[in-house]
Amino acid sequence: MDTLNSGYALLGAGVGAGIVALGAGLGIGKIGSSAMEAIARQPEAAGKIQTAMIIAAALIEGVSLFGVLICLMIATK
Amino acid sequence: MCMILSFVDKKLSNFNLFHKILFSIIVIFSFNSAKANGVEDSSKSDFVLEHVKDSYSWHIATLGHFHITIPLPIILYSANRGVEIFMSSNFYDSNHHSLDYLGYYLNEDGHVVSRDEVSFLNLSITKNVFYMLVSVLILLFLLIKNAKKIEAARYRSTTGFPLVLETLVLFVRDDIVMPNIGRNKYKRYMPYMLTMFFFIWLNNLLGLLPAAANVTGNISVSLVLAVFTFLVTNFNGTKSYWSHIFYTPGVPMWLLPIMIPVEIIGIFTKPIALTIRLFANITAGHIILLSIINLIFIMGNEYVGLISVPFGAFMLILKLLVAFLQAYIFTLLSSIYIGSAVSNDGH
Fold first, then answer.
1. Which residue among A54, A55, A65 sits closest to B280, beta carbon to beta carbon?
2. pTM of the model
3. What are residue B63's DSSP bridge partners?
4. Between A and B, how many residue pairs show a Cβ–Cβ distance under 8 A?
5. Å from A1 to nearest chain B CA?
6. Which of A3, A10, A31, A61 to probe by mutation at the B interface, max B CB count within 10 Å?
7. H helices of B125-185, where?
8. pLDDT, tens digit (0-9, with 9 covering 90-100), for B270-307
9. Which of B271, B138, B272, B273 is CA-nearest to residue B199?
10. How distant is the Cα of B65 from the closest Cα of chain A, in angstroms?
């Protein structure tokens, strides 16, 4: 029973890590695509757009890393 | 349009073919290894976490059954026994079995525990502390030596490493600190920001070396760095910064009981997010890299190395980028937080 439960926990950690990667990928992909469009429209503002893009990506990454951390804690417990 | 689509389609089909081959290779290898060793050895997966964790001795390499380990000093302080300093090698005999020393021993998690349950303060120079001190010495040596060179060549251009350093310092000033803190006030925060940037970057890079300690990937280290930013932000907060927290202008009176707690939580989430971002990025990178290399040992098949070694090399190059990016983001977000606290324009 105990091995079954810890197996479920590991499964949960794995599935959770996958969903985290999915969400972060969607979010950062959206930021990247918008930033690309913006730079294409206004190449002279590329530097400013890049900074704003990195900040937004860092915020999303921060949230997704919370998820990764929880998955890690489950997997290594 | 149609031509482009067919071209993309062709590209995709090539891609799919490549993936199919890769996938089938992996499947074949995993079947091979399943036949080779039916019983999973848990020590193989412990190897990854051992490299990420802190410890009392610096394990460099294992050749056969011989461990190359540098013992580090353990410093304990307890009220009745005073300060006790001894080397961590006292905890092991020549066959690497655990031993008691002065009533202390190392438990399974690698923590020092007292047999008599004496409460004590552990101020040991662990692997991370030792590595951090080394990195601080490197940083001081490189920066002071080259700063003197730049100073001496005041009105002439420098060459070589001082020039690289000057470029980096100017990058931090012009792209990170000045736009976010403001032209009038940035000078005061430059030493702090440069220290943060170079400390985090150097420790990220040193963490990539073989047998290195995982300094910035230790949550205590990143927490202390984030607390510094927290203190600098709040001690330099202007009247307008505090008024935005406790009496946000333009917000109706009845909304304030909701707004004030939210703003107060907001003060504390910033350093927590900084902590987790640095710690999780660096640790996750180490775990991924070690896991990829560890695949060879888990599957017990040397041909897996044909895939995992190039992929590991790719991850290592990616981690070189991440090492810089995390130092950049930490400094950037710190300067944004400080900039929002010291600005007087009401935002």
1. A65
2. 0.80
3. B66
4. 37
5. 19
6. A61
7. 127-152, 161-171, 178-181
8. 999 899 899 988 988 888 888 888 888 888 888 888 98
9. B138
10. 27
